[in-house]
């Protein structure tokens, strides 16, 4: 199925002030893949994903969705297929109410009003924002805005879901809820994130960017165990992959025949039991 393939071919981008943000990037993402794009601040992640639905157009090279290159002529069709959530939700929300904002995309697709309403209510429920449907978006907190922006894209039922920093600004409960939601989405997913534990959980494949170039592209666990690569790209292993020094000591003790669990031990001494 090539129709949902996302492909970048030698993609380069210079901002108008001359900053070279992307220096020739190539990758292919197949239908149904969940791929993370990670890298330090300024690595080029947001610039890259703004090319995936034509929000920015390449200085050199191209992006193709399926067999269709993104051009001025193909843009409306591409935007129906690729849903992009910006890093800063303020760039995305502009209607008088949450409901109107989430309805904007499906209404523009020409769907009948009852179908638009059904999609909006469904999307707001999925991100846990149904109670705030009549509020003006500018009166929401940062994390609430992010969730409304995600609902707006979900309501368009895109083939490819692209989210810049999905968990940025979310509280732990909202983050967990979003992770479940994103895991259920069966089409292609592309996320940028500094939340490497989220990446580990959701994305079997990771692309590492540094200074506008691809430094690695492979299975997430392999990427996250390459400590030299992580150091060079100013990244660190996700917490779930950082070994606990006490656990390692306990493992050594257990191998030597002492089965004490230090977590229980610590609890006991805190409670004054020994
Ligand atoms: N509008 C702009 N004009 C000029 N340079 C820009 C502009 N936006 C971004 N840049 C530069 O382009 C480079 C890549 O920025 P980008 O926003 O893509 O990084 P990022 O990887 O998304 O970083 P972060 O993790 O902070 O979100 C940086 O050097 C940045 O300073
Ligand atoms: Mg960014």
Describe the structure.
- The protein is an alpha/beta fold and 274 residues long.
- The chain has 2 domains: 6-242, P-loop containing nucleotide triphosphate hydrolases (Rossmann fold); 244-274, no CATH class.
- It has 11 helices and 10 strands.
- The chain has helices spanning 45-50, 75-81, 98-108, 113-126, 142-154, 172-184, 196-202, 220-223, 227-232, 245-255, 262-270; strands at residues 6-14, 20-29, 34-38, 60-65, 68-69, 82-85, 160-164, 188-192, 205-210, 213-219.
- β1 and β2 (20-29) form a beta hairpin.
- α3 (98-108) crosses α4 and α3 packs parallel to α5.
- It is globular and about 70 Å long.
- Residues 262-270 have low confidence and may be disordered.
- Bound molecules: adenosine-5'-triphosphate and magnesium ion.
- Adenosine-5'-triphosphate is lined by residues 15, 17, 19, 21, 39, 41-47, 87.
- The site of magnesium ion has 4 residues, from α1.
Unreliable spans: 262-270
Strand order of the largest sheet: 6-7-8-3-9-10
Proportion of helical residues: 25-40%
User: Structural class, from helix and strand content?
Assistant: alpha/beta
pLDDT averaged residue by residue: 90
CATH topology of the largest domain: Rossmann fold
Distance between the termini: 63 Å
Number of domains: 2
Tell me the number of helical segments per DSSP (H or I, 4 or more residues long): 11
Q: List each distinct ligand once.
A: adenosine-5'-triphosphate, magnesium ion
Radius of gyration from CA coordinates: 22 Å
Given this structure, which CATH class of the largest domain is correct? Alpha Beta
The CATH superfamily name of the largest domain is P-loop containing nucleotide triphosphate hydrolases
Using the 3D structure, state the CATH architecture of the largest domain.
Answer: 3-Layer(aba) Sandwich
